């Protein structure tokens, strides 16, 4: 297997060039014309016949139609952030690969090349899923609706997310998140409040939505403070409140936007029920109306037991003790993440696995977390990500013929 590591390491220079190209030209959302064109061009050069699917790109590799199919996923989209990383290859178009999806795309391209070099040893099919729109929580869903899990049908799937800026970890470590819910259910909501506007001098003739929202905001805190068991991982954030545009006018309406992050279906359902009850009844108390609508509802990534166990063993056979079980690694910091990951939609359909790859630590100057305009990532582990992807897929297929 050392040959496998050697051929992955041999890709490093090409992967750095590829990553910097993507990093300098970040695109956001569901349509990534330049990024997808680049991925298609690379895959074709490696001998693939890629197809477009739901805004993303799909390609397969393997001996033939027999056997099972293991899918590897990379997301390709960036964030609408003005980059301040100071890197010589910084983006200047107002978007930034601050979540490391340029790494994911590059590592899966490297994996594609490795798989082609070893195609005769693939006992089944490896499907490569390059998806758009993870940051808007729609890309995976769109690709599933467009058939990414069909033809050939996917039997199991895996994704890697890079991790940077965290203290107490070692660069290049691979962190296999806990069995069960590995990321949170993330529900983004908006509470629309309807009052009755009027003159600031005659508030008795109005129903003030700003007053209502202040009370709703306070009342919602009780869900976390008194209603959900403290042992549950749960958090709710109101990140935006808007109403009015003058100091002497009471507006007709206002709205609040926020996110609920929860683990497990019962907590998720309970919180959503209470959010509606509290918002509507507090508004009613003040003679106003409130309505809760959801902007997106992303399910947890569920790490399935057997895929997780087998992949952990496969990765450890190649990379030894740099492969970490997240339940005990770094105080369990990465066992379950309260971030959202729309690969959750894939894990609802097929047995799945999410793992992290440490790509930058504070001791080496990578001090900022993902989504920060100053975030930087350590390119030295690009080849390792490619190798982990390819080796995990090939081993799973061999063990599950
Ligand atoms: Zn992100
Ligand atoms: Zn991300």
TrEMBL record:
Domain called Peptidase M20 dimerisation: residue spans: 188-284
Stated name of the protein: Amidohydrolase
SUPFAM superfamilies hit by this protein: Bacterial exopeptidase dimerisation domain (SSF55031), Zn-dependent exopeptidases (SSF53187)
PANTHER family documented for this protein: METALLOPEPTIDASE, PUTATIVE (AFU_ORTHOLOGUE AFUA_6G09600)-RELATED (PTHR11014:SF63), PEPTIDASE M20 FAMILY MEMBER (PTHR11014)
Record lineage: Bacteria, Bacillati, Bacillota, Clostridia, Eubacteriales
InterPro entries in the record: Amidohydrolase (IPR017439), Bact_exopeptidase_dim_dom (IPR036264), Peptidase_M20 (IPR002933), Peptidase_M20_dimer (IPR011650)
């Amino acid at each position: 297997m050392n040959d496998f590591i050697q051929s992955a390491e041999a890709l490093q220079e090409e992967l750095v060039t590829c990553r910097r190209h993507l990093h300098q030209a970040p695109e956001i959302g569901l349509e990534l014309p330049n990024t997808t064109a680049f991925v298609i061009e690379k895959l074709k050069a490696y001998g693939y016949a890629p197809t477009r699917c739901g805004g993303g790109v799909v390609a397969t590799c393997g001996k033939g139609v027999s056997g099972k199919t293991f899918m590897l996923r990379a997301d390709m989209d960036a964030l609408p952030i003005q980059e301040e990383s100071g890197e010589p290859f910084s983006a200047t178009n107002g978007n930034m690969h601050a979540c490391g999806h340029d790494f994911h795309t590059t590592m899966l391209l490297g994996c594609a090349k490795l798989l082609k070099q070893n195609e005769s040893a693939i006992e089944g099919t490896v499907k490569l899923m390059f998806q758009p729109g993870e940051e808007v929580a729609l890309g995976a869903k769109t690709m599933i609706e467009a058939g990414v899990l069909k033809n050939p049908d996917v039997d199991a799937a895996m994704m890697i997310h890079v991790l940077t800026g965290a203290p107490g970890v070692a660069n290049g470590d691979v962190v296999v998140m806990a069995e069960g819910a590995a990321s949170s259910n993330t529900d983004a909501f908006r509470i629309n409040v309807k009052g009755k506007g009027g003159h600031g001098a005659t508030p008795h003739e109005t129903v003030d939505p700003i007053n209502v929202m202040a009370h709703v905001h306070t009342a919602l805190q009780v869900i976390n403070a008194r209603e959900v068991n403290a042992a549950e991982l749960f958090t709710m954030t109101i990140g935006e409140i808007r109403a009015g545009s003058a100091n002497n006018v009471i507006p007709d309406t206002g709205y609040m936007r926020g996110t609920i992050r929860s683990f497990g279906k019962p907590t998720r359902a309970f919180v959503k029920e209470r959010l509606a009850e509290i918002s509507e009844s507090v508004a009613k108390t003040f003679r106003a109306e409130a309505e809760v609508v959801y902007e997106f509802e992303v399910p947890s990534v569920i790490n399935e037991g057997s895929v997780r166990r087998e992949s952990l063993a496969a990765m450890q056979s190649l990379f030894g003790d740099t492969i970490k079980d997240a339940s005990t690694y770094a105080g369990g910091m990465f066992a379950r993440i309260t971030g959202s990951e729309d690969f959750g939609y894939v894990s609802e359909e097929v047995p799945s696995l999410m793992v992290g790859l440490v790509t930058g630590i504070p001791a080496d100057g990578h001090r900022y977390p993902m989504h920060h305009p100053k975030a930087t990532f350590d390119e030295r582990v690009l080849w390792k990500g490619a190798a982990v992807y390819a080796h995990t897929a090939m081993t799973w297929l061999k063990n599950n013929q």
